[in-house]
Amino acid sequence: MEGIKVNQIGVSFKGTGSFVPDQILTNQKISQRVDTSDEWIKSRTGISERRISSLEDDVTEMGYRAALAAIEMTDWDVKTVDLIVLATSTPNDLFGSAPSIQAKLGASNAVAFDLTAACSGFLFALITASQFLKGGSFKRAIVIGADQLSSFVDWNDRRSCILFGDGAGALAIEATSEFDNFIGFDMQTDGERGSFLNLPSKNIKDSIIDNIDFLSGGFSPIQMNGQEVYKFAVREVPIILDKLFKKTNYSSGEVDWLLLHQANQRILDSVGDRLKIPREKILSNLEKYGNTSAATIPLMMDEAIKNNRIKQNDIIAMSGFGAGLSWGAALIKWG
């Protein structure tokens, strides 16, 4: 199907970028810390290794490097960027890391803010930025997904420490009146199941003076019910994608690529099977990076663009899912 002709403003997709830290933590190295093995991890998750941030590779630096690469692909003047949305659940400044990225880029004309939705974060941020562009408020936007989950992992918990890594990816998008390559989207949240995956505050009680208490800041490690999260993903993701196909008058057979949040290879394969999308159309790089939360979708997209798998006018079905619990889907046409 051709890009949808519209009278109002549409969205085009112009460039991608990514960044991962140099430190590589393999399954073999993890097995020196906890009782596990390369075969056990790979057979259950599909992950072989993940990247771990050094002191210099915080979310601001990773997000900046990914955004800069996306801007360089577009050949934009950075001063023409109007909007920067950073999807992250691990900012190095709880008041927001997007403004620091804006400053490092020199994007002085851009408004910048963080959006927190964990593993759904990049998809939610992309939808948010696209609505600003479609509404005519902005012309050019950079959407970044960056997370440093290694800082919040319990490295003695063999059930969860094997899953997560650090990284960042970015997507440059532009408003256009000629067509709309952002075909459709859907978003959902179920807070009743939020306890299945969270990163709670520690809530350590202390006292300022007599009779005036406060809760000291800080966070506990990531807490996850892996079995429930798996069941949630393999049930809800096919449903929301199928609903989106119906709403946009597309079918799964018209999809060139299925791009899911990179959480577990068994989830990716199961969703593809339920939608009758062949394995060769399912994009996956979690073997190298593990679950990088908000970074997984743009990190995978950048890799697929750079190695010429995703080509101009390809139809891409995306879904992000995770903590909240939250999940969403988007259908886009690359270009």
What does this entry look like structurally?
There is one protein chain. The chain has 335 residues and is an alpha+beta fold. It has two domains: 10-180, Peroxisomal Thiolase, Chain A, domain 1, CATH 3.40.47; 183-194 and 221-333, Peroxisomal Thiolase, Chain A, domain 1 (3-Layer(aba) Sandwich), CATH 3.40.47.10. It is built from nine helices and 15 strands. It has helices at 27-30, 38-45, 59-74, 98-105, 121-134, 226-248, 265-274, 286-289, 296-306; strands spanning 10-19, 23-26, 49-52, 83-87, 111-115, 140-148, 166-176, 182-189, 197-198, 204-209, 212-216, 223-224, 257-260, 315-322, 326-333. Strands 1-7-6-4-5 form a five-stranded mixed sheet, with helices on both faces. A four-stranded mixed sheet has the order 8-15-14-13, sandwiched between helices. Strand 4 (83-87), helix 4 and strand 5 (111-115) form a beta-alpha-beta unit. Helix 3 crosses helix 4 (98-105) and helix 6 (226-248) packs parallel to helix 7. The protein is globular and about 60 Å long. The chain starts with 9 loop residues before the first strand and ends with a strand.
